[in-house]
Amino acid sequence: MQRRDWFSFGSFFYWLLVLFLYLPILLLLVFSFNDSESLRFPLQGFTTRWYSEMLVTSGLIDAAKNSIVVGLLSSLVATALGTMAAIAIIRFNFIGRTAFLAVSALPLVIPSVVIGVALLILYRLVFNVELSLWTVGLAHVVINIPIVMLIVAARLAGFPDNLEEAAMDLGTSYWGAQLRVTLPISFPALVAAFLTAFTTSFDEYAMSVFVIGTDATLPVYIFSLLRFPRRLPIVVALGAIIMAASVLIIVFAERLRRVGSEQ
Amino acid sequence: MENRSRVAVLISPSAVFLVVLFLIPLGIMALYSFRAGAFGPESQVFTLDHYREFSRNATFHRLLGRSAWLSFRVSLLAILLAYPVAYFLVFRTGESRLFLLTVIIVPAWVSYLLRVLSWKVILGGNGVLASFLEWIGFQPGGPILIYSPEAVIVTLVYVWIPFVALPIFAALERIDRSLLEAAADLGCGRFEAFLRVTLPLSLPGIVAGFLFVFIPTVGEYVTPALVGGPDGIMFGNLIFSQFLRGLNWPLGSLMSLAMLVLILVPLFLVGRFVRLSDLAGI
């Protein structure tokens, strides 16, 4: 930034926006250490008891475990499927390619509530299956496939396929070349895609709430806690942890994505 | 031939997923809007009753209109706030602009649910903002913002600003600086050059930013449920209650379809004139 611009109207506006964006997050962090059941000024002194109470709040640890398992499995499946689709999209020109691209982008633009009710009807009225973490996980795969495709396709478009051809000239099969050349080259993008998918799954509420059974994921559990005002500080402490973790994970994913596309 | 089988192997798993768990459910949902009921013998009766009810019920129309209008205002506000900042970053800062942009984008990576929640805590009747104002000696004389459409707007603008800043930034970055020099050489003032060169050229970024906000917010129901109160509920809340409270699934399906149309129509209209990938800046 040039020196004269530090004090300009533009930079004032910029820092005002930064303040607007970060203040709510900081407030949540501050109040997670506040020694009072009600979230209001003035602050009442420092405590870590909300963090330790998290451990004994019934259902919280289970919900966290559920979210981690659903997140890991659905992101793994979405990463595998989305990567394969990205290879097809970038390396081949085939009939139905445009149609596939259009359909696969739709989950990104259709409101979660619409996808949620459509899946609820499918699960309950067509297949007549009990709602469970499985039905949630499958739904998360659907919304994560497009995310993975976008990230991996961007990486694949960045390098030509002559390395694969070289590998095949040297006697590897097509699939061998994919495994030993394409996958290693796009590995940073794969990890970035997996992490992005995981955080998406971990945070998903609006669609999940329609297809969830009796076992809650963390967002669904947090929502159920909101009905008890006295538990709010615990929710805030939990939120502070999730926020910190998600920023770390995504910053890491973003670095990988950048590393991937700069080579 | 070889290629064809390779494509088939690569694409079919995700294609199956998207067809079975996305396209077919949307189709079935459309079919269910013609059923008398979701369960028991009623589910075998086909009827246009829900369509009749939907076309007559002024509350539904008002709520759908209000959702679109609220999302429109959110998108507009987010653009008005993000544009000057993106402009400042592109034209007034040097090497550091990518870092400064990242500072704005990072909050978008923090859990969506928790960012909405933080506003519930802030705006809450007895919450952070009210108690802070009281503490510094300012008497607002009543609850501030909470449980109102304005609270929904503030929260959604907060959530979506980073997603608007990004495409506008990308569009401004692509503008050829020599065009601005040419405008200056031809006697254009700075403001006129902005109106006649910069603004039109950044229009794709503005349109992209608008869609990035309008599309997800028009189907929103979580934020209205948390901070909206009775006057702040949106059409999404109506769909939610048809399924999880009122149990009128066919009517809910119809509402869901209406929502889908509301979103896909502007998307197709824009798609006819601009390539969406251009809008996304990829």
Specify the CATH class of chain A: Mainly Alpha
Rounded average pLDDT of chain A: 86
Radius of gyration of chain B: 23 Å
Q: Kindly provide the radius of gyration of chain A, computed on alpha-carbon positions and rounded to a whole number of angstroms.
A: 23 Å
Per CATH, the architecture of chain A is: Orthogonal Bundle
Largest sheet of chain A: none
The helix/strand series of chain B, from N terminus to C terminus, equals HHHHHHHHHHHHHH
Strand content of chain A: under 5%
Quaternary organization: heterodimer
Q: Which class do the helix and strand fractions of chain B yield?
A: mainly alpha
- The gross shape of chain B turns out to be globular
Counting structural domains of chain B, the number is: 1
Distance between the termini of chain A: 27 Å
How is the main sheet of chain B built? Answer: none
Number of helices of chain A: 12
Count of helix runs of chain B: 14
CATH architecture of chain B: Orthogonal Bundle
Calculate the mean pLDDT score of chain B and round it. Answer: 85
- Tally of individual domains of chain A: 1
Detail the poorly predicted runs of chain A: none
Summary, kept brief:
The complex is a heterodimer of chains A (263) and B (282). With 263 residues, chain A is an all-alpha fold.
Description of the structure:
The complex is a heterodimer of chains A (263) and B (282). With 263 residues, chain A is mainly alpha-helical. Chain A has a single domain (51-262), classed as MetI-like fold (Orthogonal Bundle), CATH 1.10.3720.10. In chain A, 75% of the residues lie in helices and 0% in strands. Chain A has twelve helices and no strands. The longest helix of chain A has 32 residues, at 60-91. Chain B has 282 residues and is mostly helical. Chain B has a single domain, classed as MetI-like fold. Helix content of chain B is 77%, strand content 0%. Chain B contains 14 helices and no strands. Chain B has helices at residues 2-32, 49-56, 58-92, 97-109, 112-123, 128-135, 149-173, 177-185, 190-201, 203-218, 222-228, 235-244, 249-273, 276-280. The longest helix of chain B is centred in the N-terminal third of the chain and has 35 residues, at 58-92. Chain B is globular. The chains are: A mainly alpha (263), B mainly alpha (282). Chains A and B meet through helix 1, helix 3, helix 4, helix 5 and helix 6 of A and helix 1, helix 3, helix 4, helix 5 and helix 6 of B.
